[in-house]
Amino acid sequence: MIKIFIILFFFLSLAQTSASTKDKIIQNLKDTNNLTFNFEQNVNGKTQNGNCILSFPQKIFCKYNLENNKILVANGKSIVIKTSNSYYLYPLKRTPLNLILDKNFLVNKIRNLNERKIDNKFVNFRFFENDFEINIFFDLDNYNLIGWQTTDIYQNLSITFLSSVKKNQKFENDLFSLPKQN
């Protein structure tokens, strides 16, 4: 009986250690409620940076390191980009962020995609959805989301790199209240 238990334990631990990278990324996503991170974003050759709090499902607050006090806020339905002298309000569903901020959508999408390992450091998944081309990137060491690249319906290329990523931090939920227009 002990022999059977040892053999069974050996096979179960072997099965867990041989879980695919894709399975580990999916499990990490499932275990993630929110991420805080610094970012560098390049949109059509123009680089900006700052920090964000992303909360699943479909909420994000980003403060840019710019003199014009730019912020980006999505509350699950709408997205606002506000500066000291401009205010843009969009339906979230018309942006690629709608998909990137939807953890369940990403998990289901990743299950059906082939992974591409890059330099034994990153894992990339690429898909097309609602006229958007989206590449998402994960760290091969800790399976955290570390960036995305999107091409929107106007063929604008946006590349976002994440750094200093922390998972499941505490923060105030009112961050995701859309700011008022000036």
Task: List its salient traits.
single chain, 182 residues, alpha+beta, outer membrane lipoprotein receptor (LolB), chain A, eleven-stranded antiparallel beta sheet, 21% helix, disordered N terminus
Describe the protein.
By secondary structure, the chain is of the alpha+beta class. The protein has one domain (21-176): Lipoprotein localisation LolA/LolB/LppX (outer membrane lipoprotein receptor (LolB), chain A), CATH 2.50.20.10. The protein contains four helices and eleven strands, in the order ααββββββααβββββ. It has helices spanning 2-17, 21-30, 97-100, 103-111; strands at 34-43, 46-55, 59-64, 71-75, 78-82, 87-91, 116-118, 122-129, 132-139, 145-151, 157-167. Strands 6-5-4-3-2-1-11-10-9-8-7 form an eleven-stranded antiparallel beta sheet, with helices on one face. β8 (122-129) and β9 form a beta hairpin. α2 (21-30) runs antiparallel to α4 (103-111). It starts with a helix and ends in a 15-residue tail after the last strand.
Provide the low-confidence segments as ranges. 3-18
**Count of alpha and pi helical runs:** 4
The shape is globular
* Oligomer description: single chain
Radius of gyration: 19 Å
Give me the CATH architecture, please. Answer: Clam
**Fraction of residues in helix:** 10-25%
**Beta-sheet strand percentage?**
35-45%
- Domain module count: 1
- By DSSP, the count of extended strands is 11
**The CATH H-level homologous superfamily:** Lipoprotein localisation LolA/LolB/LppX
- How is the main sheet built? 11 strands, antiparallel
CATH class: Mainly Beta
Q: Helices and strands, in N-to-C order?
A: HHEEEEEEHHEEEEE
Q: And the CATH topology? A: outer membrane lipoprotein receptor (LolB), chain A
Mean pLDDT: 89
For the largest beta sheet, what order do the strands appear in spatially? 6-5-4-3-2-1-11-10-9-8-7
Structural class: alpha+beta
